[in-house]
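Protein modeling request. Please complete all fields; requests missing the sequence field cannot be processed.
Requester role: graduate student
Desired output: 3D structure, token encoding
Chains: 1
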Amino acid sequence: GGAPLPPPPPPPEGSAGPAAPHVAMGKGHKQSKQGGLSTKTRKKSNKNSRASHIARKIRTKDIDQVHDDLKEPDKFLAGVLEKDEDLPGMGQFYCIACSRFFQTAAVKVAHEKSKLHKRRLQKASDIPHSQLDAELAAGMTHDR
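Delivered output (144 residues):
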């Protein structure tokens, strides 16, 4: 056995302790080994196209159904629609292109100026594709 080690020399005047670089408490910012963001904070980019997201969506009418409705706009006028107290505005103010009910005529007019409505109206006014179009595009033969 050896003699115990002598105590370390006292720190120089003016310093409070051992001369170690100042390190804040806590873990600080850890970087992943690959660099960039860690997997916990990375934003997932394909959330809206996942089956689980699509299954939970509130479905509106499809464009081809809206296209058929636009052929007969008289069926959707304020007096013609039957009154339904569960719908906004008693079910009287209906936008065919967006298949939505509105509280008042003024709200419906404001909606018709919106970009969403104009986009839906544009899509609905195009002639929808049929099964025949799809088969012809795929190169399947058809006798006309």
